[in-house]
Amino acid sequence: PPDMSARVAASKRHWYDGQDLDVTPAEMLTLRSTAFWPWASFLKYVHEPMSAELGQPPDVYLCGSLLGPRPRQIKEVIELGAVRDQFDRAHNCYLEVAAKRKYDIFIKVRPDFVFTGAFPSVLGADPGTVHSRFREAMNIKGLTSAHTSWYQCRHTCESSVHSETDFGYVNDDMIYVVPAALADKVFMAEGYARLLRKRYAYPEHWFDPEEGFSETMFAKGLLAAGVLSRPLAVQGYPAEAGYDHRGQIGACLWKTVPKAFCGDFQRSMDDVLEALRSSANASSTSASPKRH
Prior knowledge:
Spore Coat Polysaccharide Biosynthesis Protein SpsA, Chain A, single chain, alpha/beta, 8 helices
């Protein structure tokens, strides 16, 4: 609808470091002009196609500090002050933005993210789920490199555990698309999320990812809040990360690699979500958790 808008956090920080990428001269020219500048890549691959799809530009908020003049596409810069981590930042940012007007969709984007392909249609998103890339996955059909945030170029799914029958996913927290009906839960305060996680038991046959990653905690909090997820296809990487994300995606920056070897007994995403719903219904009638 013409009145639909989206919140997208964006950055004006510039970045260029592509000398060791396996790309053609024409592709390198594109990289020089857009992809290695996070803000320029955001305009090309997110803002412009989304504006065309919605019939108007999305509202863009930057929650943080901006060095230099504010680009005209940024509606407002929101200074948040000190925050504990990215989840508190997202929570505080959401509270500020949601108080300004009613939105149908919220899109959270890491400010230094370099997009190298078009952002998926927001109008086609499932209104009952969050869409994000997956940091880990096991026994899920149909995933590709664009749906994952680490070891994208491998044909296997990245997972800290391996099981023939268990299945599951861990949400990546760099980018996610959130319907307004789920926003309060997705952007909940970290203290409340921590309480939910302590009380939550993974359903039977759900894989048990390593607890040390912030993404694992984020994903478990979403499940504990009753928020289900679908994979989001986004090509790109964070420019200023502590890990070599650019190196991980370098060999498949311009192509999509199917995750054909994602487990021995792969389920469709619909089957994964149905299993979660069935487990939630069963747990509502039983006080006996199967696994912590």
